């Protein structure tokens, strides 16, 4: 069965697009684990709003999950974040199809969903017919698995010990574009 990928972005130290790949058999258990990380009154885990102690706790928990993370990094150098994001999607989608047999991709919804769809459709139109990918946008409050790329992108963007805390699940940080 095809893997699932959950995608979010971060704008720390350039532009980061993060994909976390999960096998379908692991989706329910990982989603359940992530929900336990929410404190009372929280609708989601969002690293930007957590204390350092809480960030360490969250990274400790997610580093134990059976998930693989890929981060695509673009230096802005005067380029817009949108252009950097497009370049990251153009590199990420073929990687997810070819290296991880991803059949379903969920991207965190934002005000640029339409532009995301255009770029993803463009990339898919260049692929052989056998490479099928279903993709959709979703809000992180309704899909806890979108918390994972937020967590991992935040840690990679911060670097140092935070990045180290991602553990073995952080497979690659790939530079994209000029």
Automatic annotation (TrEMBL):
**Where are the membrane-spanning stretches?**
14-34
Q: Which UniProt keywords apply?
A: Membrane, Transmembrane, Transmembrane helix
According to UniProt, the name of this protein is DUF3800 domain-containing protein
Q: Which organism is it from?
A: Kribbella orskensis
Its lineage opens with: Bacteria, Bacillati, Actinomycetota, Actinomycetes, Propionibacteriales
């Amino acid at each position: 069965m095809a893997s699932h990928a959950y995608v979010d972005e971060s704008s720390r130290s350039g532009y980061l697009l993060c994909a976390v790949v999960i096998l379908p058999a692991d989706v329910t258990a990982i989603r359940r684990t992530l929900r336990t990380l929410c404190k009372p009154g929280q609708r989601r885990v969002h690293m930007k709003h957590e204390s350092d102690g809480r960030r360490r706790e969250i990274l400790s928990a997610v580093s134990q999950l059976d998930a693989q993370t890929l981060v695509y990094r673009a230096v802005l150098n005067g380029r817009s974040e949108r252009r950097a994001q497009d370049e990251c999607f153009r590199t990420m989608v073929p990687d997810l199809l070819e290296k991880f047999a991803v059949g379903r991709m969920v991207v965190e919804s934002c005000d640029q969903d339409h532009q995301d769809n255009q770029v993803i459709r463009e990339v898919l139109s260049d692929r052989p017919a056998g490479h099928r990918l279903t993709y959709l946008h979703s809000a992180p409050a309704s899909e806890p698995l979108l918390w994972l790329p937020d967590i991992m992108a935040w840690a990679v963007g911060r670097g140092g010990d935070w990045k180290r805390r991602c553990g073995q699940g952080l497979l690659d940080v790939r530079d994209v574009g000029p």
